[in-house]
Amino acid sequence: LDTGFEPDIRKLEDLGLPPKEDRCTSMFSATFPTEVQQLAKHFLPNDYVFLAVGTLGGANEDITQCIEEVPQGQKKDRLFQLLEQ
């Protein structure tokens, strides 16, 4: 949710999404913090399926994480640069 997609999802809801019981919605997250769980409860039906692969709360040891700070207006361009590499 740090990337700011929650307001975009809520805006879609405001634009007239059908009720959660009348639509098929899938949500994917590499992590499942409390904020994402609350979002899932709001947008998914009560009988949604939660599927966990690997260890909950654990990091994959085979993945190296790199953090790069990018100004807000340059994020899309930087993403495309990284994808082209």
TrEMBL record:
Signal peptide: none annotated. It comes from the Eukaryota. InterPro entries: P-loop_NTPase (IPR027417). SUPFAM superfamilies: P-loop containing nucleoside triphosphate hydrolases (SSF52540). PANTHER family: ATP-DEPENDENT RNA HELICASE DBP3. This is Vasa. It comes from Rotaria socialis.
